[in-house]
Specification:
single chain; mainly alpha; MetI-like fold; 2 domains; two-stranded antiparallel ribbon; two-stranded antiparallel sheet; globular
C-alpha cells in the first residue's frame, strides 16, 4: 500500500513538472512577446528591449521554466531599484497590466469559482446517481426511459446553449432567477445561493448526464454478477442486494467526481461568461484578450495542479473503496 501511494505521488509530481514545462514552452516560446502590448505605440526597439528585460520575457524557455518553479517556493523579483516588483511565494507570475501578482488575482476569483463548482458538483452527483440507480433498478420502465433520454439530451446539448436558455426563460421571461452577479457567502448565504441557482442548474444538467449513464451501466453489471445472483437465490432481500451492488458502482463514480470537481475549480469559462461571474474562467479569458501571458500560464497551471491533485486523491481512495484493487 505504501509503495502504491509513493508511486502515485511521484507520478503526480512528475506530471505537474512536465505540464509546467510544456505550458511555458508553448506560451513564452511560441507566442509573441508581451512586451509589445506593454510598450505602447510607437515603441522604439530600444524601449521595447528594456520593457522585455524588465518583464523577463527576453530569456530562454529553460530559464523561464527554472524561474517559475523556483518562484513557487521562494518567490520571484522583477526589475531593479525603485521599479523592482516582488512576487511572494507561491508565485504563479506577475500581471503587469493589472499591476498584481497572478496568485493574488487567482485568490480573488477563487471564491466565485469554488462556490460555482462545489454546488454544481453536489447537485449533479445527487441527480446523476439517483436517476442512474433508479434507471438500473427499474430497467425498461418509465423512469429508465426518462433517465436515458435525459442523459442523451444532456450529453448532446452545448453548455452555452443551456445557459442561454436558462437566462432567457428563468431570467428574462419569468423573472424568477437572477441572471448575473455574485454575492459572497459571508455577506448573505441566502443571496449567495439565490444568485448561483442558474449556473448550478446549467452545469449540473450537463454533468449529471454522464453520471446517469455510468451509474446505470455499472449497476446493471453488478446486479447480474454471480455473487449477487447467489445472494438473491439464498433469499436475500432486494434492498440487501442493491446495497451490495451500489458499492461496486462507487469506484468509477468517485473517479469521475474527482475529475469533474477539479475541472470546475479550474474555471468554468462558458458558465461564468453567460452569467457574468468573475471567476477563474473569466480571469483566463481576460488574460487571453489582453495578451497577458502571465495570467494565461498561471491560471492554466493552477487548473492543471487542481486536476492532478484531484486525480491523485481519487487514486488513493480506490483501494479503500474496492478491496480487489488493494489486493492487487
Amino acid at each position: 500500500m505504501i509503495v502504491y501511494i509513493a508511486r502515485r505521488i511521484f507520478t503526480a509530481v512528475f506530471m505537474l513538472l512536465a505540464i509546467a514545462f510544456v505550458t511555458i514552452s508553448l506560451f513564452f516560446g511560441a507566442s509573441k512577446d508581451p512586451a509589445r502590448a506593454m510598450c505602447g505605440k510607437p515603441c522604439p526597439p530600444e524601449t521595447r528591449a528594456k520593457v522585455s528585460a524588465y518583464m523577463q520575457t527576453d530569456q530562454s524557455v529553460v530559464w523561464q521554466y527554472t524561474e517559475f518553479v523556483k518562484g513557487l517556493f521562494v518567490g520571484r523579483t522583477y526589475g531593479e531599484g525603485a521599479q523592482q516588483v516582488h512576487c511572494h511565494a507561491p508565485c504563479f507570475g506577475y500581471s503587469f497590466p493589472n499591476r498584481s501578482d497572478v496568485t493574488t488575482l487567482i485568490a480573488e476569483r477563487l471564491p466565485v469559482t469554488l462556490s460555482l463548482a462545489l454546488g454544481a458538483a453536489v447537485l449533479c452527483l445527487v441527480v446523476g446517481i439517483g436517476l442512474g440507480a433508479l434507471s438500473a433498478i427499474r430497467k425498461g420502465g418509465a423512469v429508465d426511459r426518462f433517465s436515458t433520454g435525459f442523459a442523451m439530451f444532456g450529453l448532446s446539448v452545448p453548455t452555452f446553449l443551456v445557459g442561454l436558455l436558462v437566462v432567457q426563460v428563468f431570467g428574462f421571461m419569468l423573472n424568477a432567477l437572477p441572471y448575473s452577479g455574485f454575492v459572497s457567502f459571508s455577506e448573505s448565504p441566502t443571496d449567495w445561493a439565490w444568485h448561483l441557482i442558474g449556473p448550478w442548474m446549467v452545469l449540473s444538467f450537463i454533468l449529471a448526464a454522464g453520471y446517469i449513464r455510468v451509474t446505470r451501466t455499472q449497476l446493471l453489471n453488478e446486479l447480474s454478477a454471480d455473487h449477487l445472483v447467489a445472494m438473491t437465490a439464498r433469499g436475500a432481500s432486494t434492498r440487501q442486494v442493491n446495497r451490495h451492488a451500489v458499492r461496486g458502482v462507487m469506484v468509477p463514480v468517485v473517479a469521475m467526481f474527482a475529475l469533474d470537481v477539479t475541472a470546475l475549480l479550474g474555471g468554468s469559462v462558458i458558465a461564468e461568461r453567460v452569467f457574468s461571474l468573475h471567476g477563474l474562467g473569466d480571469l483566463l479569458l481576460s488574460g487571453v484578450n489582453e495578451s497577458d501571458l502571465s495570467i494565461v500560464v498561471g491560471v492554466t497551471l493552477f487548473s492543471a495542479f487542481l486536476i492532478i491533485v484531484g486525480n491523485l486523491i481519487a487514486d488513493l481512495l480506490m483501494p479503500l473503496l474496492d478491496p480487489r484493487i488493494r489486493r492487487a
